[in-house]
């Protein structure tokens, strides 16, 4: 599982409230990613990080912000949750595979429901 | 940006038959093409990948082929078993080799293997 945990695993929140999801990794990987998964859309990249305090936007970044103050933690914040942000959120890391090239591995996911 | 199309969206095969899933990509600069398997309620798991310097890669019952000229790649599963039933996602990216790359996913194929 590449040492990735996500918290919370499930959350129900109301429209307009701020929400923070946490991704924690124990193997000191430099590169981390946040994706969302919705039926009919596959997985879409929200934000990613090259290292501490070094982040960039992905394909669907509107309404989301991220922070990475420590190598092991990558936080995703929904400033004011909307129903369109109801989704399953996956964190991922890049890790060298057996061939030496980098591969992405996913965390267990967080199911977020915005009512 | 990159666009990945995946077909078919659903596929049913008899146990023991072969299954083929096809993807096309739009950015000719893409050079890394992983495939993920996702069982219901679980995280996507990397099952095989291919880079643009090879045309085919095989791992037991799973193989992936790449046609750079046509910008398409395919997943082949032979001698299918019920445990192959899952949703399969293809993805494409530009991998500079430094460890960070942004995956663009297809929308997924739900494979059902009928015993």
Concise summary:
The complex is a heterodimer of chains A (about 120) and B (about 120). Chain A has strands spanning about 5, 10-15, 20-25, 30-40, 40-50, 55, 65-70, 75-80, 85-95, 100-105, 110-115. Chain A has about 120 residues and is mainly beta.
Identify the notable features of this structure and list them briefly.
heterodimer; A: 115 residues; seven-stranded mixed beta sheet; four-stranded antiparallel beta sheet; globular; B: mainly beta; six-stranded mixed beta sheet; five-stranded antiparallel beta sheet; 0% helix
How does this structure look, described?
The complex is a heterodimer of chains A (115) and B (115). With 115 residues, chain A is mainly β. Chain A is built from no helices and eleven strands. In chain A, a hairpin with a 3-residue loop joins strand 4 and strand 5. Chain B has 115 residues and is mainly β. Chain B has no helices and eleven strands. In chain B, the strands form two sheets. In chain B, strands 2, 4, 5, 9, 10 and 11 form a six-stranded mixed β-sheet that branches.
């Amino acid at each position: 599982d590449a040492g990735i945990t996500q918290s919370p695993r499930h959350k129900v929140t109301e429209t307009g409230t701020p929400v923070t999801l946490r991704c924690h990794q124990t193997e000191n990987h430099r590169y981390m990613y946040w994706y969302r998964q919705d039926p009919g859309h596959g997985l879409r990249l929200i934000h990613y990080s090259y290292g501490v305090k070094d982040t960039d936007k992905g394909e669907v970044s509107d309404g989301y912000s991220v922070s990475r103050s420590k190598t092991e933690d990558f936080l995703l914040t929904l400033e004011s949750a909307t129903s369109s942000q109801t989704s399953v959120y996956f964190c991922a890391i890049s890790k060298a595979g057996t061939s030496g090239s980098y591969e992405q591995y996913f965390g267990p996911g967080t199911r977020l429901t915005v009512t | 940006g990159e666009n990945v199309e995946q077909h078919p969206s659903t596929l049913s095969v008899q146990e023991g038959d072969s299954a083929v899933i096809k993807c096309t990509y739009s950015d000719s600069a893409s050079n890394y093409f992983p495939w993920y398997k996702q069982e219901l309620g679980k995280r996507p798991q990397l099952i095989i990948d291919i880079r643009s310097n090879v045309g085919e890669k095989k791992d037991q019952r799973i193989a992936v082929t790449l046609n750079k000229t046509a910008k398409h790649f395919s997943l082949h599963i032979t001698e299918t078993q019920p445990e192959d039933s899952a949703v399969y996602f293809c993805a494409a990216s530009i991998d500079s080799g430094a460890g960070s790359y942004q995956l663009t996913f297809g929308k997924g194929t739900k494979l059902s293997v009928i015993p």
